[in-house]
Amino acid sequence: MKTTFEFSLQGRDWWKPFIPFWFVYVAYIAITQNRGFTGMAASTPGPYFAIFFAILLVFSAAMAAFSIVFLRIFLPKLKAGDKGVEFHGDIGRFLGKVLIGALLSIVTIGFYIPWFCRSIVAYLASETRFGGQEPKFLGKPSKLLVIGLLGLLLPMIVVMAIVMFAFGRRTEVPVPSSPTMIAICALMFIVFVPYFYLAYRWYANFS
Fold first, then answer.
1. Which residues make beta-bridge pairs with 7?
2. Which of the two ends of the chain, N or C, has the fewest CB atoms closer than 10 A to its terminal CB?
């Protein structure tokens, strides 16, 4: 007999930590999308990328802290029958994993990302208890790497090649509201559907 999960979270349970989370996110967008800041990329690329990565690391650290706060609120609201979920994640340990993983991902130009994802999900699983038992994450980084290469990178290259072939001889660029741009975005979403499906199955691979 199947037992479905019940989720009893309500807005009032997490609006207080959501407000500072929202301000941090808005601040990150405001800084990185500021014309004065983005203009540095062409004039002084070295300082621009140094500042950008520093801001990215600070933002990643903030998001890591908020993630633990939210999971402490969200997961206890999840039940299956008479079994509940407990979460005991530590902000400091999680922050260390995120910063190390982010730095290694930058140094390896993204190649380390599957191992980074594996480390994060495995840690969160190790700090979770369901019915008194610890779930084990079974996802393998090499499989996520293949999923990313074939399901994300390859389709992206194909779509970009189609776009370059279609607009290579044209000087004008389609505006975001044009039918052509809308068609390109729709094509991107369609070709990424297998990736979303396979990546979700990879992340949900627990025993």
1. 78
2. N
